[in-house]
Amino acid sequence: MLSFTAFRIIALLEGVSFLLLLGVAMPLKYIYMTPLAVQVIGPIHGLLFMLFCAYLIMILKRHALPAKVGAWGFLAGILPFGTLVLDGYIKKQVAGDVRELI
Fold first, then answer.
1. What is the model's pLDDT at position 84?
2. Does any domain span residue 102?
3. Rounded Cα gap, residues 18 and 77, in angstroms
């Protein structure tokens, strides 16, 4: 079952995991020579990124959003804070379908 709320949660978690990977795990690995954080956060972020991409494709198809939104969506997935900005944008695009937002 595709839920816009689930997409928003995955986007938030993916964004936070990316920030943790860049802001905490990578410095621990390269400054303090402690690779454990990358070994833990890296695969979690990878799984969340794949889920984000899959849900983005499903949201685009279900709500007939233009390809431009999809391109920006995938770009947002690789930028820090990008998924958080995308969440607000897509929420405005599908605001007509109120039952999906609840």
1. 83
2. no
3. 9
